[in-house]
From TrEMBL:
<dbReference type="InterPro" id="IPR000868">
    <property type="entry name" value="Isochorismatase-like_dom"/>
</dbReference>
<protein>
    <recommendedName>
        <fullName>Isochorismatase-like domain-containing protein</fullName>
    </recommendedName>
</protein>
<feature type="domain" description="Isochorismatase-like">
    <location>
        <begin position="43"/>
        <end position="151"/>
    </location>
</feature>
<dbReference type="Pfam" id="PF00857">
    <property type="entry name" value="Isochorismatase"/>
</dbReference>
<comment type="similarity">
    <text>Belongs to the isochorismatase family.</text>
</comment>
<dbReference type="InterPro" id="IPR036380">
    <property type="entry name" value="Isochorismatase-like_sf"/>
</dbReference>
Length: 160
């Protein structure tokens, strides 16, 4: 088995809020309480199905065989069938990239840790937050619970 193929054996790449996307009910019935005001009658619905906010980012496409997960909360595991899907595929290692380190990244990571994934890795230079300080503080918190936090270059050079 080729080195790169071996590296990805039993590993899933989760691209949070770019491949794993938010899509909400147009009336906001499945939105967190603190965001419901964004779905009032007179406002555009920021992440309703079919809205710009629910689309994949430019340049990212779902190919045949890829899996697009729709979520309504920060964690990609909360009230979705992601865990069952990954278990069925024999996945026990996760590599996570995407946006909003303190929100969607962190919640997904902490749920993955609670679900006992063998390895949870956050690529620190392929994730982001509103400020570098917020990003680093959350990366430190995740590292403190056993999450690997390499740069992309470090991860590519590693055996994991």
């Amino acid at each position: 088995m080729a080195e790169m193929e071996l590296k990805w054996k039993n590993t899933a790449l989760l691209v949070i809020d770019m491949q794993v996307v938010r899509e909400h009910d147009p009336l906001g019935r499945d939105v967190e309480l603190f965001r419901r005001h964004l779905y009032s009658v007179d406002k555009p619905k920021p992440t309703s199905k079919g809205s710009v906010g629910a689309e994949l980012v430019d340049g990212l496409m779902i190919k045949d065989g890829d899996y697009k997960l729709v979520k309504t909360r920060f964690s990609a595991f909360f009230n979705t069938h992601l865990h069952s899907y990954l278990q069925g595929a024999g996945i026990n290692k996760l590599v996570i990239i995407g946006v909003q380190t303190p929100n969607c990244i962190r919640q997904t990571v902490f749920d993955a840790v609670a679900l006992d994934y063998q390895t949870v890795t956050v690529i620190v230079d392929a994730t982001a937050a509103a400020t570098p300080d917020i990003h680093i503080a959350n990366v430190v918190d995740m590292a403190n619970v056993g999450v690997a936090t390499p740069t992309l270059e470090e991860w590519c050079k590693s055996d994991e």
